[in-house]
Amino acid sequence: MKTITRSFITLLLVACVMGLSAQTTSTKTSAAPKTASAVLEYFDDNKQLKILNSEGFEYGDVFLGMELFPGDRIQTTKSTAELRLLPNGSIIKISANSNFQINSLKNSTKGVNEFNLVVGKIRTVAAKTTGTADYQFRTKSAVAAVRGTDFGIEVQEGSMERLIVREGAIDFTQTSSGKVLNLTAGNGADAWDQQFSPKQLTTQDLADFFKEMDFVRLNPATVPTTAPAEEPEGQTPPETTSEPAGPATASGSPGTAGSPANPPAGTDAPTKPELPGGNDL
User: Fold this and answer.
1) pLDDT tens digits, residue range 7-59?
2) Residue 101 contacts residue 140 (beta carbons within 8 Å)
3) Cross-strand pairs, 190
4) Stated pTM of the model
5) For the CA atoms of 258, 259, 262, 264, what is the dihedral angle to 10 degrees?
6) Per the omega criterion (within 30 degrees of 0), is the bond before 273 cis?
7) What tens digit of pLDDT does each residue of 187-231 get?
8) Cβ density class 181-217: b for 16+ within 10 Å, e for less
9) Which of 8, 73, 190, 236 has CB atoms 3.0–4.6 Å from 101's, for a disulfide?
10) Pairing relation of β-strands 113-125 and 135-138?
């Protein structure tokens, strides 16, 4: 009887030790930075856009919930597209006939969100951030440094690279001269303008620029408008869990985001097409 009792107590102690070890491991895992990605949340027609990897090869299938990563590029023809950045919640609308590349993405603790618009038009509603600008939008002749705002950029190859601010403020740099403009709501500037100066736009100017740039599926009201609190050093954020989402489909219904490097079974292998505006940035 004593032997049985001692064995039972030993088993209880082992179970307690294993439980504490698992809890410690779980806590450490939850403290890891969240992986950053750009999720394809909407398109008009997946046959009217292409997504290419960092080597310029086209993914064989485009589907809602598809996760995009640094180096990936979206080329639209007759379709628009909408992206949500994770984990920060910013949203981007890409117009038809555009060539847009993801250069880098910020995870929950480090990095910067950097993009390149080769040709076409985008609208971005950027989440508020702490400290210095966590977003950079590049064109051939300019760089926009952003913290949290609603703005648009339009590039017509060889003739226009303009930025217009709807809300907030942006530092817009002309790379050839190094001149920096601080643009606020209702201001615009074109990097091809020799004087490169802010211009106050009329209500009609703003309406003309942003027409057809309203989001279809994504809602600007859901983008965080206050900067997140910084985690004190030496403290671990609380563990969180989430329910897995359903599978993504190529037909257009939302679902689990899938990596372009691992598209659904049965899709074609990547092929390398020619892009309007060139493959080089």
Assistant:
1) 555 555 545 545 544 444 433 334 455 789 999 999 999 999 999 999 999 99
2) no
3) 162
4) 0.72
5) 30
6) no
7) 999 999 989 999 999 999 999 999 999 999 999 999 998 765 554
8) bebebbbbbbbbeeebeebebeeeebeebbeebebee
9) 73
10) parallel
As given in the structure block, the two tokens for residue 92 are: 């981007």
- Smallest CA-to-CA distance from 213 within 149, 121, 126 is with 121
Q: Which of 41, 99, 58, 74 is nearest to 267 (CA)?
A: 58
For residue 265, the number of C-alpha atoms closer than 13 Å in the C-beta half-sphere is 1
Mean of the per-residue pLDDT values of the chain: 79
In degrees, rounded to 5, the angle at the alpha carbon of residue 144 between the alpha carbons of residues 43 and 46 is 10
Is residue 95 within 8 Å of 124, Cβ to Cβ? no
Q: Where are the alpha helices (DSSP H) in the chain?
A: 2-30, 203-210
Report in angstroms the alpha-carbon separations of 210 from 103, 111, 129, 277.
25, 30, 24, 23
